[in-house]
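Okay, can you check this protein?
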Amino acid sequence: MTSQIILYGIIFLYGIIFGSFLNVCIYRIPVKQSIAKERSHCMQCGYQLKWYDLIPLFSYLCLGGKCRKCKTHISIQYPLVELANGILYILVFFVCGFQVKSFLYCFLGSALLVLSVIDWRTYEIPFGINVFIFILGLVQVAADYENWLSYVIGFFAVSGFIAIVILITQGRGFGGGDMKLMAAAGLLLGWKLILLSFGIGCIVGSVCHLIRMRVSGAENVLALGPYLSIGIMVSALFGNEMIQWYLTTALG
């Protein structure tokens, strides 16, 4: 038990450290800034952060959520993204165990976290993130090459449908980023799980957005990426069990 706690503690640390990098991606990708060359700095005064200002979670708490120099409040997004990524990594390894797929799903979850925040703010899904998920899909196909056809079908299963809707509605039904996301994720998950992902994402998106429209007066247009991401992650971790339950219980 002690060794497991230590192991999951290490996984959590890796998660929040990588989560710190995700914050850099979230802020810089939409404005076309380099995520590697430019040093981290205060968005208000330009103060270049020292290494002790960049310790995930702890630096934010020690600084009271303020810039060390100008005392401007730092967005709560920073610790939340770090914490969410750390918890996500623990969940992935707890559910899937220690295998290649677990590492792929951790990277997938991190990519979806960045994608969701950016899409929520800008209504755009960065192409580079979809490419990254596509590469994860290629690794999965190589690792499970005996079932390669399931992944290839998954690439087209939902993205093909979205492409048809885009053509019919002249781009009003879905966005091109949604189509690319479901293609890349379909290659990673296979056709069964990507269909489940799409269903979950659409249901969660519809319910949540209707509530937002009623409560806060949100516009009719919604960023679908975060909801599709929820569907993808839920299906990746629990999809096979959900499908099995449906086939044996609901239909049996």
Notes: The chain has a mean pLDDT of 90. Residues 1-98 form one domain. The CA atoms of residues 59 and 163 lie 45 Å apart.
